[in-house]
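Q: My labmate handed me this sequence with no annotations at all. I'd like to see what the chain might look like in three dimensions before we decide whether it's worth expressing. Could you predict it?
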Amino acid sequence: MARLNVQISDKIEVFSRIGVKSFYFILTLVSVWGLAARGAVEEGLLLYLDFEAGWLERGDLSPSRHPVEGWGALEEVPGPVGFGTALELSSDPTAVVRILGDLGAPEVLTIAFWCWFGDPKPDRWDYLFDVRSDQFQEAEGAFFFGRNRAGELRFGDLLVPADGYPRREWVHLVVTVERGRMRVTLNGLEVAAGPAVGTNLGDRVRIGNRFTEEEAFFGRLDEFALWNRLLDDEELLAIVRRPVLSARPVRARAKLPLLWGDLKRGRR
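A: Here is what I predict for the chain of 268 residues:
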């Protein structure tokens, strides 16, 4: 009986050692994958604002490190689950984030961010971002993404109907422009597509407002990033699950992971 107990004890110890080694092996693989994913997502990154506490002092976290300036009442509020804080602009129509560096005119463009749509006052526009100015309009390749008086989202000539996006909950929005075509996706599902706008960004990028800085977005923004390339499905899934420049996994309960499961399976 004593011998049997020793044999069982020895086997448990062996299995325990194997279990510990397997655990550390898996942990190493996850860490390596996370770092590789981060490196891949950094490729072509032109602009990244995480809107975490102290974001204005840190500024643009992309390799380009463009100068950033904030104006008006920019409030830090809870962001999507697992993403810390976000930027609230609703209380001040002049609130805006200005990107002062020159982002050029990339041929291919991906813009991705989290947004929380409130309900603005009737008969007013509000803007998520704008790269126009008095001198540069659509004819010169500039563009904007805004919400019109009817509550429709507008990007170039694309319109997302007022009932085509949720209110008062976090959604992940991606805009892509490539080869004469552009598309808008919400939570991984395409909601609008059509002929492309120009991609002349220059030094005029305004986040959360119109270029005149008097019609701020009535809602919240988080994890605003811009690339000079298209992101593949794996990369899009990665930036939904964790901050753009973080290899640390986060929980994504509040971000409709089932829809992103559809994206991963190729549903467009």
